[in-house]
């Protein structure tokens, strides 16, 4: 391969990558490929091993941060060393760091399980932000700008796209899809890929962190142990953003009860609570609801149909008080109000539904009657702004040009969810590795992976309580992607910086109990 041409791109706080306001066009980074591969690319074929490198400068926390962005693919191999897939990634590496051995590396995954890494890449931790307002709603013109809150000042970051997400693709069509599409299969091949990435980029000495969002939390929890056991790679931290249940079983009672604090947060946001609760701040009000949930609701639901009628009405009355729903509706649902029904019912009298992933968002259905919303109002809003931005950014800013479609959500089904013990995997990894710390970040208005279930995960993950000093939880006043709200973007990235800096051992401190 001939020498790669590099493009030097300087971003600034006023720069937006869009058609109406383009900076002076820079030389586009290119790779000169063999003629055979060039022909394949021109026919929308896929090269599983290539890269484009660009140089940039960003202003983060008021200081210049020069960095190199490497965008491309690295193969996935089978046991015989044959290429079966290629994973698309973007690697941001601060370029003025002399001691790479002490420089933290953050390995980032999103969820789905068929979702690309786009969400956290251009809205949270990466050096670029998409064009949205301060609450996360789309605005035009579409595009990207500098992220002054990126964690690139304290850590290098690689955003990884599993098979069939973004530009990642399977190359050997004879390879069974079960090789990739399942809880444990996903973890196995991604651990191998991470080993390759770390080796190619000489990052074995670096403190390493995994961050995952939504299903990505299942993924990184499993990877923490898989990396230790199969690659002998030990981590300093795992960050769970809007975590799933991580394979921790919820019984009928706990599943029904644990939703209530989320219902209360949503009702508070939409001003549907009684004045006594509504007058309190969100974080002042929620502990009262949490205490009721644990100490009264769970015991009451445990009695099921044998709960005394007077107690049933008492519990329904309190649930109505905390949820903003009518007591009659709660009784009709036997004290177990489904999530779909809540999203439809809370603002039914106003003619709106509320969003699943972020209940601050409102939707409009064809009719007010029914048991569930017609669509997810928040997701359509997010795709509105993210899809143009990532396509603009990849081509114009990072110089990666392809006719392949960037899969925001790729085909990964059927997905094998059996054998999900990822919470136990993470617990075991922490037990084996005294350096390993865990941070959970949750949005109060997330109805898919709600904040109280995230707390419940931490309580149940380690029954001994011996690891709790290395576990922490942070809450934010937004939804599933809590960083879309500017105030929470700032708080969330500051929390990540603090977590990274506190979990780095002091010189000479051994990994031992």
Automatic annotation (TrEMBL):
The keyword Protease applies. Pfam families: Peptidase_S10 (PF00450). Keywords: Carboxypeptidase, Glycoprotein, Hydrolase, Protease, Signal. Residues 1-21 form the signal peptide. The keyword Hydrolase applies. SUPFAM superfamilies: alpha/beta-Hydrolases. InterPro entries: AB_hydrolase_fold, Peptidase_S10. It comes from the Bacteria. GO terms for molecular function: carboxypeptidase activity. This is Carboxypeptidase. It comes from Flavobacterium keumense.
């Amino acid at each position: 391969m001939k020498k790669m041409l590099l493009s030097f791109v300087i971003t600034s706080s006023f720069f937006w990558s869009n058609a109406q306001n383009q900076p002076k066009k820079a030389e586009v980074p290119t790779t000169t490929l063999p003629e055979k591969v060039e022909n394949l690319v021109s026919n929308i074929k896929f090269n599983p091993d290539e890269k484009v490198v660009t140089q940039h400068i960003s202003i983060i926390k008021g200081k210049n941060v020069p960095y190199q962005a490497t965008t491309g693919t690295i193969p996935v191999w089978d046991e015989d060393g044959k290429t079966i897939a290629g994973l698309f990634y973007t690697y941001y590496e601060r370029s003025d760091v002399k001691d790479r051995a002490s420089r933290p590396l953050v390995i980032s995954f999103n969820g789905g399980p068929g979702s690309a890494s786009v969400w956290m890449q251009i809205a949270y931790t990466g050096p670029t932000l998409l064009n949205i307002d301060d609450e996360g709603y789309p605005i035009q013109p579409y595009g990207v700008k500098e992220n002054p809150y990126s964690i690139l000042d304290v850590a290098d970051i690689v955003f990884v796209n599993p098979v069939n997400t973004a530009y990642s693709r399977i190359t050997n069509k004879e390879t069974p899809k079960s090789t990739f599409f399942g809880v444990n299969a996903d973890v196995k091949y991604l651990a191998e890929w991470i080993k390759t990435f770390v080796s190619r980029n000489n990052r074995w000495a670096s403190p390493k962190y995994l961050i995952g969002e939504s299903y990505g939390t299942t993924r990184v929890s499993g990877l923490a142990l898989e990396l230790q056991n199969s690659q002998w790679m030990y981590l300093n931290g795992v960050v769970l953003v809007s975590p799933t249940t991580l394979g921790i079983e919820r019984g009928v009672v706990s599943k029904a009860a644990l939703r209530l604090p989320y219902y209360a947060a949503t009702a508070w946001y939409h001003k549907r609570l009684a004045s006594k609760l509504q007058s309190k701040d969100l974080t002042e009000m929620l502990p009262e609801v949490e205490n009721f949930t644990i100490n009264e609701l769970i015991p009451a639901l445990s009695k099921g149909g044998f709960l005394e009628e007077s107690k049933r009405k008492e519990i329904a009355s309190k649930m109505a008080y905390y949820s903003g729903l009518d007591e009659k509706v709660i009784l009709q649902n036997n004290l177990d109000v489904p999530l779909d029904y809540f999203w439809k019912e809370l603002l039914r009298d106003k003619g709106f539904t509320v969003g699943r992933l972020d209940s601050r968002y409102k939707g409009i259905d064809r009719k007010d009657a029914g048991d569930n919303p017609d669509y997810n109002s928040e997701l359509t809003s997010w795709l509105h702004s993210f899809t143009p931005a990532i396509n603009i950014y990849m081509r114009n800013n990072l110089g990666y040009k392809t006719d392949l479609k960037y899969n925001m959500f790729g085909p990964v089904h059927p997905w094998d969810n059996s054998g999900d013990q990822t919470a136990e995997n993470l617990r075991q990894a922490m037990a084996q590795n005294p350096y390993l710390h865990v941070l959970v970040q949750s949005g109060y208005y997330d109805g898919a992976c709600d904040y109280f279930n995230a707390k419940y995960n931490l309580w149940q993950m380690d029954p001994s309580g011996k690891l709790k000093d290395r576990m922490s939880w942070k809450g934010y006043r937004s939804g599933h992607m809590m960083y879309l709200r500017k105030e929470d973007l700032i708080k969330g990235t500051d929390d990540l910086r603090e977590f990274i800096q506190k979990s780095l051992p002091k010189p000479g401190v051994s990994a031992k109990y």
